[in-house]
Amino acid sequence: MTSMTSATSDSHDHHAAQQAADGPTDIGVERLSKVYAQAIIEAADRKQCRHEVIDELAGMVHDVLPKVPKAQLVFDSPKVTPEEKSAVINRICAGRVLPTTLHTLHVLARHGRLGILSHVVAAARRQADELEGRRQATFTTAQPLDSAEQSQIVASVEQAIGSSLSPTFIVNPELIGGLIVRIADTVYDHSVATSLVRLRARLKQRSIHEIQYGRDRLGTA
Amino acid sequence: MKFNTDEIASVLREEIDRFESGIDVREVGRVLEVGDGIARVWGLSGVMAGEMVEFPGGVTGLAFNLEENSVGVIILGDYLKVTEGDEVRSTGKLLSVPVGDAVIGRVLDPLGNPLDGKGPVVTEHRRPVETLAPGVADRQPVREPLQTGIKAIDAMTPIGRGQRELIIGDRKTGKTAIGIDAIINQKNSGVKCFYVAVGQKDSSVAVAIDILRKYGAMDYTTVIVSGASTAAPLQYIAPYSGTAMAEYFMYNGEHALIVYDDLSKQATAYRQLSLLMRRPPGREAYPGDVFYAHSRLLERSAKLSKEKGGGSLTSLPIIETLEGEVSAYIPTNVISITDGQIYLQPDLFFAGQRPAMNVGISVSRVGGAAQTKAMKKVAGGLRLDLASFRELEAFAQLGTDLDAATQSRLDRGYRMVELLKQGQYQPMDVVDQVLSIYAGTRGHLDAVKREEVAEWEKGFLLFVRDQTPDLRAKMEQTKELDAESERQLEAAIAEFKRQWAAKNGMGAGSTGGSRSLAGTAK
């Protein structure tokens, strides 16, 4: 199962967050999810409960399903009929969630798309962020940051790019030091690892240059 | 060589001190799938069509297809090094290759990397691989001849500087040989030559390079190799990068010649790419823009106006046909783009006529404008005469009794055909060509046996060189054949014929060859 990130949470394991930052593995699923996400947001907006619906769906994906791995299998399986899936959904959710959330799950079940629920939720979150003028950003550091540091970094980046952010934090010790910020497809890389790679390339370039022009500063005959 | 480690350390320290670790801003994507020289990338939302992208490990690619959710990238280099999940970054640059004098004499791949083991190409000049062709105002008509050194071509389908002349024919009909001969003949003419081998067997390319080297042609030639074993993307861009290197000289007021060997293989590589990229297939499964792929390439060959320096780029694209089928898709396309074609036929090749050029359907749309005055004068009606000879010849084989006039036309034709035969890698000076063709068209060879024509020609050219150097020098200088020179030439021919007859005992069997042929036909 692909677990998708929820905003502002820094408790996700590194791989899941990395995957969210890098994008999907299947473009077809991505395209489908976008369509469902748009429909969910529009339906929720009519009832003025965009965030509630998304949060409930996210709760389903991140809190309920991981605890009952078999439920995910049931949702994924084409062998289970849509009616049976609907019945399961009714038993789990009826009365506990908003009607829009329940309907969303039923629609997904009827179309045999419950398996991509996590992608749909991630896409809905992205679209909601976009509509509200927030951009999703991933911050990668070598050391874990405390919440004061996190909000300080987010604030300064928000000021620099002039729009608000919906941040995700990742810890990757391979960076050695520094910070990498990724907003959409643009990466602002100020990590020690990248600097070292660039320094290496420059030293190499320089040596090639010297050899080419026959300057024998490095060697003594 | 002993290394001074202290000095190395100090250089490194200095370099590290000066290193400013600025923020590295890049636009990235991720490889979703990769295979057969292409990759599908998620992300790279700001990439532009044709922009160069970089894979980890320094492999470059070109953004080829921009789709709603992904970007199709063609990988220029070792696509086996690229794996799913790799980060791809855009560079904001177009693909470019090194150009200038540094590439001359080198064997390079389509990205300008050396393949000849002679070290990196050291130059500061680079040109984008894809550039716009010069516009109408920047051009002037093609007038100056580009001598190929091949009698049949220079006399009947002359090529001018800035022209595009297609060489078309089946496999093994001597297409490459014409290109190589044309390159060899550019020695001392100041024309820079480029030989682009696309989809060729590496063994044949090695032979071609060896020949160029042997005849001293590598001093002014660059070979761009993208062999049959290289990935389709490299084969696809090879002609464009070769042109970029050649254009540099054109825009600097010099002259360049480029041979594309061959464009049908490039079209096949492009078809492969397009199909892998899921672009819709058209006729013969080629993509819809395969015409544009060739037209934008060949339009870059031009003769620039005086204001632009007057440089030129002449191109000799080669197309391989299947069973002489010139009405296939790619051949018709390239025929319609170029300014003429040299059509090579297997039956002529096996009949011993080499170059195996079919005179009837080979044309040069620039024509006499690209010939020296002398050549124009002597070769004026040659093409039509030979074409009508071919018809007569077919008629004569029916075994009909021929009148004297027809017989003499046939005899003349047989001798002209003999005269136009020329060995490989033996390009001829234009003055020599004029002398030979003059002798042939004015009937001075009618009395020579067909099998002795080559020998006669050789002897005659040597005779002119040794006995009448003034005449030759004058022709070389003026490139004309005025009345006075013509009189001298006639005298020289008469004298040589006398010596020839004396040497060969007498004018033995004046029309013996053809008479016996007519006899057996009865």
**Strand order, sheet with most strands of chain A:** 2-1-3-4
Distance between the termini of chain A: 64 Å
Strand proportion of chain B, as a percent range, falls in: 15-25%
- Quick one: overall form of chain B? elongated
Count of individual beta strands of chain B? 17
Provide the low-confidence segments of chain B as ranges. Answer: 507-522
- How many DSSP helices of chain B? 17
Q: Outline the low-pLDDT stretches of chain A.
A: 1-21, 215-221
**SSE arrangement of chain A, N to C:** HHHHHHHEHEEEHE
- State the largest interface: A-B, 30 and 35 residues
Tell me the Rg of chain A in angstroms. 23 Å
Q: Structural class given helices, strands, pairing of chain B? A: alpha/beta
User: In terms of structural class, how would the helical and strand content of chain A be classed?
Assistant: alpha+beta
Mean pLDDT score of chain B, rounded?
90
Per DSSP E runs of 2 or more residues, the count of β-strands of chain A stands at: 5
N- to C-terminal separation of chain B? 84 Å
Return Rg of chain B in Å.
28 Å
Give the SSE map.
The complex is a heterodimer of chains A (221) and B (522).
Chain A (H helix, E strand, L loop, with lengths): L13 H9 L4 H20 L3 H18 L1 H8 L5 H12 L5 H12 L6 H15 L2 E8 L5 H15 L2 E8 L6 E6 L2 E6 H21 L6 E2 L1
Parallel strand pairs in A: 1-2
Antiparallel strand pairs in A: 1-3, 3-4
Helix pairs in contact in A: 2-3, 2-7, 3-7, 5-6
Chain B lengths: L1 E2 L1 H14 L5 E12 L2 E6 L7 E4 L5 E7 L4 E6 L10 E8 L1 E3 L8 E2 L17 E3 L22 H6 L9 E4 L5 H10 L6 E8 L3 H13 L6 E6 L5 H20 L3 E7 L1 H14 L13 H9 L13 E9 L8 H9 L2 E5 L1 H5 L12 E2 L8 H7 L2 H15 L7 H17 L9 H12 L11 H15 L1 H10 L4 H21 L8 H10 L1
Parallel strand pairs in B: 9-13, 11-15, 11-16, 12-13, 12-14, 14-15
Antiparallel strand pairs in B: 2-3, 2-7, 3-6, 4-5, 4-7, 5-6, 8-10, 16-17
Describe the structure.
The complex is a heterodimer of chains A (221) and B (522). Chain A has helices at residues 14-22, 27-46, 50-67, 69-76, 82-93, 99-110, 117-131, 147-161, 192-212; strands at 134-141, 164-171, 178-183, 186-191, 219-220. The longest helix of chain A is centred in the last third of the chain and has 21 residues, at 192-212. Chain A is 59% helix and 14% strand. Chain A has a four-stranded mixed beta sheet with strand order 2-1-3-4, with helices on both faces. Chain B is α/β, with parallel strands linked by helices and 522 residues long. An eight-stranded mixed beta sheet of chain B has the order 9-13-12-14-15-11-16-17, sandwiched between helices. Chain B has a six-stranded antiparallel β-barrel with strand order 2-3-6-5-4-7. Chain B has a two-stranded antiparallel sheet with strand order 8-10. In chain B, helix 5 (232-251) packs across helix 6 (263-276), helix 7 packs parallel to helix 8 and helix 14 (453-467) packs across helix 16 (483-503). The longest helix of chain B is centred in the last third of the chain and has 21 residues, at 483-503. The model of chain B is unreliable at 507-522 (pLDDT under 50). The chains are: A alpha+beta (221), B alpha/beta (522). At the A-B interface, helix 2, strand 4, helix 9 and strand 5 of A face strand 1, helix 1, strand 2 and strand 3 of B.
